[in-house]
């Protein structure tokens, strides 16, 4: 099995330990919302995960927290139709957004939760960063580009995260990494570092944990 090193700046031991402690602590489901009035009140700083259907959002949340069933995973794209909120040790809010694109659901349902997601991304003041997940096997797609544009227009900080990196050979992965980095570099609200992960192999998980810990309330 090939393990891919994270790209960009390496975390120091203190950052890695901060990430380990944050995600090893309590992590509780707090709310599920399918409309704006159902959103929980803003309190903790929040980060969220966005991406097309079946990109691996739930698997990544589970890998980060070390809990297999925290976020529901499904082989059927589009099964997560709500915004799912978690509380990470009363230090950080974690939000799993509905997937976009190719969902096996009625068109009106897709439009409703796409609209909700857009409203959330554009108007949630407690949101510190959006992690936009991109399937390494597909690269940046039309839906991803639309979300990138929305985040830029809303001045919401976001970072690209490649998922399923273990599914590609090193040469192919390097090619998609370079292409994704080139796209990211054209967006004003984007964090410059590309995170390369595999929930199954564990690649990049420690690095991403350490980065996310920087947004948590310090104790």
From TrEMBL:
Keyword match Secreted: no
Pfam families for this protein: MMR_HSR1
Keywords assigned: Cell cycle, Cell division, GTP-binding, Hydrolase, Magnesium, Metal-binding, Nucleotide-binding, Septation
One GO term of the biological process aspect: division septum assembly
Keyword Hydrolase annotated: yes
EngB-type G domain ranges (all copies): 43-218
Cofactor: Mg(2+)
A GO-annotated cellular component: cytosol
Molecular function, one GO term: hydrolase activity
Family from the record: Belongs to the TRAFAC class TrmE-Era-EngA-EngB-Septin-like GTPase superfamily. EngB GTPase family.
Protein role: Necessary for normal cell division and for the maintenance of normal septation.
Protein name: Probable GTP-binding protein EngB
UniProt source species: Puniceispirillum marinum (strain IMCC1322)
Gene symbol of the encoding locus: engB
